[in-house]
């Protein structure tokens, strides 16, 4: 089994993230092989809602042929409406995300990077330029798949003082123009400090994640906006954050996390047994000096999980992996340049909403 399939199952088997699979670790603690559950997905069932004789609500999923597969009763208190999820799972071409309706930005995004997906593979290059994405052809767009009441809007960012910060970078979605366009949906965006963060240190960290594909066959990246407490002079801990928009709609995270899992064959003789490396970095949503070491932002993966209320990796994966800074160099590559010249879309941090 290819290592990419093994790690794909290992990462995306987390129930809170993509779908509740099971990862079983076997073998030595340094080199663990994972049993891969079936990744096939059935079509979305047709749902028939009926009210029973006692007033209870019954939900009847039916198969493609209209055959009843099961009957799941809901509490009678939900007879006239179910509050529904606070997060919407969004499956895109280049990433998967959970959109937080209350905060109006992603609760998390997940992506799988390889040289081929980044258009850098010599063995599998794009057959033509038309098959790659060009960010100059993409524009920020409201995500109409999100209910209008909970949707982030272009006007929310207008003159807010914050950049529309990609959680999944456009540069990670060069596989096609359609994939790149999806990274410009506002459901993939969160307010970020522009100069000194989104356009600089955060961009260096995104580049570091992409450069991992030069040393690892598979790189999985989770991006997680965070709201972390700080201690006030009275000794109490409080979470304070700004909300932008008119009326105030979009929350401004205090921090952002990048959590990575990188895999490569443990040895030429055991190509199906991956060597797994993991690491987590938490950065404040603020100006960060270029010379700040990336390792100064290292935190345990569990710290991000606890703060975000997410389960990113199983205990088997975390216990059986090496730290990413032990298997590669955790150092950002500083490329200061004239943003207005190299990235025309950044000539103005906040552009007027589309008309």
UniProtKB/TrEMBL annotation:
<dbReference type="GO" id="GO:0003676">
    <property type="term" value="F:nucleic acid binding"/>
</dbReference>
<comment type="similarity">
    <text>Belongs to the DNA/RNA non-specific endonuclease family.</text>
</comment>
<dbReference type="GO" id="GO:0006309">
    <property type="term" value="P:apoptotic DNA fragmentation"/>
</dbReference>
<keyword id="KW-1133">Transmembrane helix</keyword>
<feature type="compositionally biased region" description="Low complexity">
    <location>
        <begin position="36"/>
        <end position="49"/>
    </location>
</feature>
<dbReference type="GO" id="GO:0046872">
    <property type="term" value="F:metal ion binding"/>
</dbReference>
<keyword id="KW-0255">Endonuclease</keyword>
<dbReference type="Pfam" id="PF01223">
    <property type="entry name" value="Endonuclease_NS"/>
</dbReference>
<keyword id="KW-0479">Metal-binding</keyword>
<dbReference type="InterPro" id="IPR020821">
    <property type="entry name" value="ENPP1-3/EXOG-like_nuc-like"/>
</dbReference>
<feature type="binding site">
    <location>
        <position position="198"/>
    </location>
    <ligand>
        <name>Mg(2+)</name>
    </ligand>
</feature>
<dbReference type="GO" id="GO:0005634">
    <property type="term" value="C:nucleus"/>
</dbReference>
<dbReference type="InterPro" id="IPR044925">
    <property type="entry name" value="His-Me_finger_sf"/>
</dbReference>
<feature type="domain" description="DNA/RNA non-specific endonuclease/pyrophosphatase/phosphodiesterase">
    <location>
        <begin position="91"/>
        <end position="319"/>
    </location>
</feature>
<dbReference type="InterPro" id="IPR018524">
    <property type="entry name" value="DNA/RNA_endonuclease_AS"/>
</dbReference>
<dbReference type="GO" id="GO:0000014">
    <property type="term" value="F:single-stranded DNA endodeoxyribonuclease activity"/>
</dbReference>
<dbReference type="InterPro" id="IPR044929">
    <property type="entry name" value="DNA/RNA_non-sp_Endonuclease_sf"/>
</dbReference>
<keyword id="KW-0812">Transmembrane</keyword>
<keyword id="KW-0460">Magnesium</keyword>
<protein>
    <recommendedName>
        <fullName>Endonuclease</fullName>
        <ecNumber>3.1.30.-</ecNumber>
    </recommendedName>
</protein>
<feature type="domain" description="ENPP1-3/EXOG-like endonuclease/phosphodiesterase">
    <location>
        <begin position="92"/>
        <end position="319"/>
    </location>
</feature>
<dbReference type="InterPro" id="IPR040255">
    <property type="entry name" value="Non-specific_endonuclease"/>
</dbReference>
<feature type="region of interest" description="Disordered">
    <location>
        <begin position="35"/>
        <end position="58"/>
    </location>
</feature>
<keyword id="KW-0540">Nuclease</keyword>
<dbReference type="InterPro" id="IPR001604">
    <property type="entry name" value="Endo_G_ENPP1-like_dom"/>
</dbReference>
<feature type="active site" description="Proton acceptor">
    <location>
        <position position="166"/>
    </location>
</feature>
<feature type="transmembrane region" description="Helical">
    <location>
        <begin position="6"/>
        <end position="28"/>
    </location>
</feature>
<keyword id="KW-0378">Hydrolase</keyword>
<dbReference type="GO" id="GO:0004521">
    <property type="term" value="F:RNA endonuclease activity"/>
</dbReference>
<keyword id="KW-0472">Membrane</keyword>
<dbReference type="GO" id="GO:0005743">
    <property type="term" value="C:mitochondrial inner membrane"/>
</dbReference>
